[in-house]
Design goal:
about 325 residues; alpha/beta; Hemocyanin, N-terminal domain; Rossmann fold; 2 domains; seven-stranded mixed beta sheet; about 30% helix; Catalase_clade2_helical; metal-binding; oxidoreductase; DJ-1/PfpI
């Protein structure tokens, strides 16, 4: 029985650490009928006494094993980190020791990794045998007949002096592919393109860097232009790109925008397209093109793995 204690509007704080009965410490038993506790009406019932749940219903492990078996190494690392984070805030060894025991029924390596993080005794044997069955639940498994970026949210970082060719071309391509582009700038007042007069039309950002987080988007795009020299000096902008990279968002950059990504994503082995180069490089989810010609930005996309065109390679990474 879960003692909900009067619901959301209740202001009194009840002493004690357990809010349900029965519990392992025998604390706070429910009130007896003599104390005014609730009692079911003793109505006479008749019927067939049968088990309505099959043995398969009682199997709580096989599906969890199948899910774990289907995950890629990075996804498994993420799951272990999630267990470690939650149990790091638990100071009752009974709880985290029992969690590790249950994980032994799923996978012994999972249980060992979690035990090491949370301070539980390292297990030595698998519980329920793992048959190794897998299914298609990994986030890296792509089953759509054709890649799509429909409904994906893409942040485009700009400042005064952005490259209008790269910006306008990519913005139009995103809209045509039914994605949702959002312009993020240093302010919500009008931002002007490179060479554009301050009396020109410009663009009005949807958000500014201090008012929105990169984690709210599926991808980040940085067009080239002289605005990069200013953006590189702003710690919040560098953090924007670095945080997106850390959360495995696809990142795209053209021209001078590559310098900003290089400053934010200092990872051994990551490669970037050289300035002025026609090569398109996809490295660790970062797609760069040193030379962004107008024909590289078009509405008709051909998203395929290993695409040689920037717009195709980057949108495939977003998908």
């Amino acid at each position: 029985m879960n003692q909900n204690r009067d619901g959301q509007g209740r202001h009194r704080i009840t002493a004690g650490s357990i809010n349900y009965w029965p519990n392992r410490t025998g604390a706070v038993p429910s009130a007896r009928s003599s104390e005014g506790g609730y009692v079911d009406y003793a109505e006479k019932v008749a019927g067939m006494k049968v088990s309505l749940k099959s043995n398969k219903f009682r199997d709580h492990i096989s599906q969890a094993q199948m899910f774990w078996n289907s995950q890629t190494p990075p996804e498994r690392t993420h799951i272990i980190a999630a267990f470690g984070y939650e149990l790091d805030h638990c100071n009752d060894p009974v709880v985290y020791n029992r969690i590790v025991e249950r994980l032994c029924d799923i996978d012994i390596e999972l249980a060992k990794a979690v035990a090491e993080k949370v301070g539980a005794p390292s297990p030595t044997s698998q519980g329920k045998p793992n048959a190794g069955k897998k299914t298609n639940v990994s986030m890296t498994a792509y089953n759509a007949p054709k890649p799509t970026i429909a409904s994906r949210r893409v942040a485009i970082l700009v400042g005064d002096g952005y490259d209008p060719i790269a910006f306008n071309g990519f913005y139009a391509a995103l809209k045509a592919a039914k994605a949702f582009p959002f312009v993020i700038g240093p302010k919500r007042q009008t931002v002007f393109a490179e060479g554009e007069s301050k009396t020109g039309k410009g663009i009005q950002p949807d958000h500014h860097f201090e008012g929105m987080r990169s984690t709210m988007f599926d991808s980040v795009f940085i067009p080239g232009g002289s605005h990069i020299e200013t953006l590189r000096k702003q710690g919040r902008v560098v953090h924007w790109v670095r945080e997106a990279f850390g959360h495995l968002r696809a990142i795209g950059a053209t021209g001078e925008g590559i310098k900003l990504v290089e400053a934010a994503c200092e990872v051994d082995g990551i490669r970037f397209s050289a300035a002025g180069s026609h090569d398109v490089l996809d490295s660790c989810g970062v797609v760069t093109a040193g030379n962004a010609k107008p024909e590289r930005f078009r509405a008709a996309l051909d998203m395929v793995k290993g695409a040689k065109d920037f717009i195709d390679a980057y949108t495939f990474a977003i998908s």
